Amino acid sequence: xxxxxxxxxKGLWLELPPFRxxxxxxxxxxxxxxxxxxxxxxxxVIFVLTLSNLIISLVRKIIPPKVRIVCFIVITASLxxxxxxxxxxxxYPLYQELGIFVPLIVVNCLIxxxxxxxxxxxxxxxxxxxxxxxxxxxxxxxxxLGGVRExxxxxxFFGRPFMWAEFKPFTFMVEAPGAFICLAMCLAAMNFIxxxxxKRF
Amino acid sequence: xxxxxxxxxxxIFINNIVLAQYLGNCPFLGTSxxxxxxxxxxxxxxxxxxxxxxxxxxxxxxxxxxxxxxFSQTIVFIMVIAALVQxxxxxxxxxxxxxxxxxxxxxxLITTNCAVLGIAIICQRKExxxxxxxxxxxxxxxxxxxxxxxxxxIRERLEIxxxxxxxxxxxxxxxxxxLMSLVFFAFQGMV
Lengths: 201, 191
Hints:
The complex is a heterodimer of chains A (about 200) and B (about 190).
Chain A: H1 2-10, H2 17-21, H3 25-30, H4 35-58, H5 68-90, H6 92-98, H7 109-119, H8 124-154, E1 156-157, E2 160-161, H9 176-200
Antiparallel strand pairs in A: 1-2
Helix pairs in contact in A: 1-8, 4-5, 4-7, 4-8, 5-6, 5-7
Chain B: H1 2-14, H2 25-30, H3 35-64, H4 73-95, H5 97-103, H6 106-110, H7 114-125, H8 130-158, H9 170-185
C-alpha cells in the first residue's frame, strides 16, 4: 500500500511532469490559453497514460525487447484514436479548440517516457498508480498555467469574469510569447522553492 | 508562383513551427546547447519531414479516403514515420556513411518529434496539393532549423553570462525562446 502511495504521490510534486521532468512540453505551451482547455487536455492525457501503462505493464513479458518502442507506439496510437473519437462524440467544441494537439498526444514524450521508464519494468498496480499520479500532476500543471494565462490574458477564470471591471487584459499572455515566458517563470519559481527548502532544512 | 513564395515565407517566419505553433519543443530545448548538435538535428528534421509528407500524402488520398479509414489517420501516420526513420537510418548507414555519422544519434529521436507528425497532419487538414505539401514541409523544417540554430547561438553566449540561480538552465532558455517568439510575432503584420 505504501509503495502504491509513493508511486502515486511522486507525480504530484517530486517529479511533476512538465515542470520537473520537462516532458511533453508542446501541449503544455499550446493548449493553455484558458484553464478549461488545459484541464480538457489533461483529462485526455490521464486517460491515455493510465490505459497505456496498464496495457504495457500487462504485456511487458511478451514484447521482445528489440521492437518494444514500436509496440509502445502502436498501443498509444490506438488509445489516442479512441480518445479522438470519444471527444468528437461528446465534447466537440473542445476537440475543435485543441485541434492538432489531440492526435499529437501520440508523440507526447511523457507517455512514451513513462512506458519505457516505468511500465515496462514494474507490476500492474504500481504502473497504474504511477500513471494516475503523473496524469494528475500533468492536469494540475496545465490547469494552473492555463488559469494564470487566462486571468491575465482575458480577465476570466474558467470562462467567468475574474478581475475588476476596468481591468485591461494583456493580450501578450494568450499569444505564443506569453506561453514561453509564463512557463519560464513557473520553472524558475519551482527552482527557487527547491533551493529555499534545502537551505531551510 | 507567388503562391508558393507566400507559402514558404508564411511557414518559415509568420507561422514558425516552433515559435508560433508550439510544435517540436522538446528537441528545441533539448538539443540547443551547442551549435553543431543544433545543425545536425535541424538537418535531420528537414529531411525526415519532407520524406514523411511525401509518403503520407498519397496514403491519405489513395488508401485512407477511398476506403473510409480517415479515423485511423493518427495510427497510420505514426507507423509510417517510425518505419521511415528506420529505413532512412539503414539506408544512410549503408550508402552515405559520413551523413549517417553526422545525423546518427538524432534519427531515432525524430520518431517522437511532434513537428514531423504535426507537419504531415497539417498538410491534410489544410488540404494542400502534393506539391504544396512538399513545399510546406520543406519550409517548416527550415523554420525549425532556423529557430534551433538561433537559440543555440544565444545559449552558447549564455554559458559565460551571470544569471540568477533560479533561472539557470531551462528557464532562461525558455525566456530567450519567448523573446524570439515575440520577434517572430512581428512578422504577422507582413501579410
